[in-house]
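__Protein archive entry__

___
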Amino acid sequence: MNVRRHHISAAVLAAVTALGLGGLTACSSDSSAAGNTDKFDVVASFYPMAFLAEQIGGEHVNVTSLTQPGQEPHDLEISAKQTAQLEDSDAALYLKGLQPTVDEAIGQSEVKTKIDAATLTSLESHAAESGGHEDEHAHEDEHGHEDEGHGHDHEHEEGQDPHVWLDPVKYAEVAEGVGKAFEKADPDHAADYKKNTAALVGKLNALDEKFETGLADRRTGVFITTHAAFGHLAERYGLTEEAISGLDPESEPSGARVKELQQTAKADGVTTVFYETLVSDRTAKTLAADAGLRTDVLDPVEGITDDSRGDDYFQVMEANLAALQKALGAK
């Protein structure tokens, strides 16, 4: 759909080739599918954003994700090819604070419609609820901006938790905002965007009800995870997340933190240590073995792979609900 910036992107790609960087591979789909199609071209930062764009846009959109399936989104480094893809697109959909290189690339791009999901709902700080162990790499100035060079940092301003898609209610709020942005940017298909958004919000409300009902009668409300991705979900359903690491999925816990978690597990009747599909399970399994606990997957739905317990957001979230029900002794 976007033809206006075609020559800009061609120039960018020519410059990249001249610099000998043409061999860089993009983490999204083929660049030929990223922009300049006869549809509303959307570049999404990672799976939860791409899923929203596809569900809301339907047949009218062409969605390209900057993060490959199976890639840990916090580790993403934007390539020159992907920067060119951004310039060829009609809209960019991202969640500021999760992927610093994406934030920078979109901020510097000339994409006409920039949709920051973090502005469409409220983000909370859950560090204290997760043992207060923020990752050792997170160095922020007084305004909450992260230092450059720390690829794993993904705390939002003031330590806010960006994992809003794991709360179906907040994800629905984001969906409504994305729908309105699509309607404004592509008014010819506004009626369909409005209808698709309503359908998606209805499904998310139904998922919320499943979690509410499924976790209401439980033996314990405490669960242990590898990193603090589930703070919004825990807050929504009255649970307590205890994270081995902080918001950084790859930071190493201290010996004191491990001992604290072992004591918590014993005191609160915790049965399971959860790990996730895109990050090493070594720390979780070591803690579980030492404390005599089981391990299971609680998926932050940051990407769908062959190892995922489902083919899309809803299927994986229902698998998460089943795992939580088992671990928490829900009836």
In short: The first helix runs from residue 6 to 18. DSSP finds ten helices and eight strands in the chain. The beta strands are 40-44, 61-65, 91-94, 113-116, 222-225, 240-243, 272-275, 294-297.
